[in-house]
Design a protein that fits this description.
The protein contains six helices and eight strands. By secondary structure, the protein is of the alpha+beta class. Helix 1 (85-101) packs antiparallel against helix 6 (228-239) and helix 3 (128-142) runs parallel beside helix 5 (202-219).
């Protein structure tokens, strides 16, 4: 079992005196854990942070064994965000959600591309929270739990979609959803297309929406809560009036 490709570091934990075990997100081989010899050294620590982009040279005796990897950094990685505590909270949340949601050693190229797009957005403070919502929606879709926002689940109309059924993840129009409005999730317009723009409150409703389905379809079946790093990010966004 071998591969050589770019990856994002999702986490790293000490293993032995000088090594670390990293969780990597790759495009064609999915999420992989690997032992990195000397990973605890001062030289290597900067590019073993969550969100760091690396080239991974991975080898394992069999697909069932913990492999080892040699890593080379690509670009400056998360160091560009060190002066932005909110963006760092978002980065930690994204890595934790990806690590918790994605099964190991199963290719999910859509999740990789969504994470890649989000990493590029973190340097734009006014943009990344909305991109985070799209990242989670993309993650759900790649896992087979995509939201169907194309038309109203009750009537088939494609206009005035303002709700999402909390049970099915399908969009519902204003008229069809009115009798059940108190039980529906709000659908922010920006999730229907970039042309809709971003209104006050849209990020909060978007995070409520994706969080609901991540909990229902991904984390609850694993008997696990939404990652604490995501809860922390939402709290920080709320404190700064960004929801």
């Amino acid at each position: 079992m071998e591969f050589h490709e770019e990856a994002f570091v999702l986490s790293a934990r000490s293993h032995g005196d000088t090594g670390v075990v990293v969780d990597l997100l790759t495009e064609t081989h999915g999420r992989h854990a690997a032992y990195v010899a000397g990973g605890a050294s001062r030289r290597m620590k900067p590019f073993l942070q969550a969100g760091a982009r690396v080239i991974a040279d991975y080898r394992a005796r069999t697909s069932d064994h913990l492999g080892s990897a040699r890593l080379e950094p690509v670009g400056e990685g998360p160091s560009a965000l060190f002066e932005d505590a909110l963006a760092l909270a978002g980065l930690a949340a994204a890595a934790a959600v990806a690590q918790g949601a994605l099964p190991e050693r199963e290719a999910h190229p859509g999740a990789f591309m969504a994470f890649e797009a989000l990493m590029s957005a973190f340097v734009i403070p006014e943009v990344w929270p909305a991109v985070f919502v799209r990242f989670e929606a993309g993650l759900l879709e790649d896992l087979g739990f995509g939201l169907d926002l194309s038309r109203c689940a009750a009537t088939g109309v494609m206009d005035d979609l303002i709700y999402v059924s909390p049970r099915t993840g399908r969009a519902v129009s204003r008229d069809a959803g009115a009798p059940y409005a108190d039980k529906m999730l709000t659908l922010p317009p920006f999730m229907l297309g970039a042309q809709a723009g971003l209104r006050e409150g849209d990020v909060g409703t978007g995070l409520d929406l994706t969080g609901h389905f991540l909990e229902q379809f991904v984390f609850h079946p694993q008997n696990r809560p939404i990652p604490p790093a995501r809860v922390w990010m939402v709290d920080k966004l709320r404190e700064q009036g960004r929801l």
